């Protein structure tokens, strides 16, 4: 464990079960939903110093700190959340929850349906980003939060952050949107579709009923993850990390085993992923991402944001080809046309889409300055 | 069938079986090899007006013309090969053969091993681009060709064209290298690796022994093709072709069927592919492509090309992100440093890597000018 002065220390994932059913966009009235969440820092007396962190495709509630004294791996955004860090737990009450439909504690397709005592599987309703945000709002209310100082996330997290601002405009002071988009490009949809196809074509997927089976759709899920990983990196990152170097050999093997380091890396990423992620959750969450389309939903991007009074910080990365800077700039331009308060920064990085998890140093500086000076300075205007 | 004045007309795939065994790079001495090929136009008296066309990943010997009067679909590069076309059959003797390891007539993993009377499957040796070129040379010799006026191909065809020039420098007058590279980027290797993984993870692949089985690894092969297709298009092509339009519906289905046109297109491409291609051939040919690395093989790109006296025409497409222009420029720069005769053109196109099959108009003009003026004008120097 790192120095406790820079860490939120030992944390615990908590669970909250929403009593009433929630109306999903697909028309289904769904419940009960249990939400797995963690909080760091203290809620102030006016209950308006909350920071809502929203995770990307395969994240979870454990965003910062450690789960035990012997725990070696901190939360997924520990570099950004903690005392004096970008999201400063000395000043703010930071909340992160596992997304609806996930497989790390929040109700999803792998959860037991209390009406059948069997896992939901594909009887789980297909949900949208707006549905996930409704669930987060219930958690916020339960925690007694009255005002969100900022809602922040990268990639799919940025989609949820935008949707939160749009759905609950009076509650949100600011939003930090990183490496995100108001709607996926057809190419990004295509990659998700091939990933899902890979899972669905795995005979062990068995129409989503595999939880009680010996064999799970691990090969399909692993392949989907490999496809995803190619899109999270970029050409430059791949040259830097692997080039055309061979894996533990000097010559080609002339068989269909792994020859290149990049193959080995992807296979490894695929293999470790199946131990921590559920194939059905992958189907549902990628579908929610594909469906997210603020232009289509609200008639235009301007319409989507017109009622929000939040201040925006938008960050993109020049080597991100999955959610390229041009998509961030579209949001920035719309917000500027609406006369909203928006700061934008394109960070030079060789890390591709993954940069939102890796480039914490430069992101921290920008976010700190935004939160501590730009927003805080204007807080009691 | 189009106007016969612009077509090579009715053509027939022929077969030639190489008697002796061929030494492969992997060390195996392999034979017999049957080569499927087509020819268009007449070999001249000096037997040096041959144009060797080399196909891309999933092509075949049928590059031009029709197989019958009722045939509606011409050969894969019919737009480029024929009377007065880029590769002018009034003047040149055009040869195209199916690649070693393929599944359209040339000996490959789906062929019967005469020693066992069973299909080779994965007992077929892993071959390289150099091995495929050795096979093509045997065919050329059999046809009585003494001089290659030009060797031309796009994508993997360009790799074979380069290797042919390098392996048989005294025989080749010129080379037309389109949308190709002297070695795949790690990202391109990654896409091939995931495609192969998709096939190998299909239980019906069965270690390559599926030819006598009822179920073939169609789902794995289809998925591999879908991944490939994403890389053959580009962001702009996908926006132009599909955008985020839904397939035969106005609203999301909220299930895991096809929602978007781009999904429908990819699924269709995957499905029709399995009817014409063999999964093992896909494994072998993508491996040959991954292994192709002129820098590594010859110590440097300069060394690779230093003995060639061919004149080069190199064409790339600005929207090709699989084999980007930067890779073509690397070859151009090397050839210029060596003092070789090289022409280069980057064509503006919204078609991505597929442009070498689609942008025939502009390519034809450039290739015609190169072949008829630049090369022919210098032919008897």
- Please give the count of helices of chain A: 12
Overall pLDDT metric of chain A:
96
Name the CATH superfamily classification of the largest domain in chain A. Alpha/Beta hydrolase fold, catalytic domain
CATH topology assignment of the largest domain in chain A: Rossmann fold
SSE order of chain A, one letter for each helix or strand: EEEEEEEEEEHEHEHHHHHHHEHEHH
State the low-pLDDT regions of chain A, or none. Answer: none
Global outline of chain A: globular
Give the CATH level 1 class of the largest domain in chain A: Alpha Beta
Strand line-up of the largest beta sheet of chain A: 1-4-8-5-11-12-13-14
By CATH, the architecture of the largest domain in chain A is named 3-Layer(aba) Sandwich
Largest sheet of chain A: 8 strands, mixed
Q: What is the oligomeric state here?
A: homodimer
Strand content of chain A: 15-25%
> Radius of gyration of chain A, Cα only, in angstroms?
21 Å
End-to-end separation of chain A = 41 Å
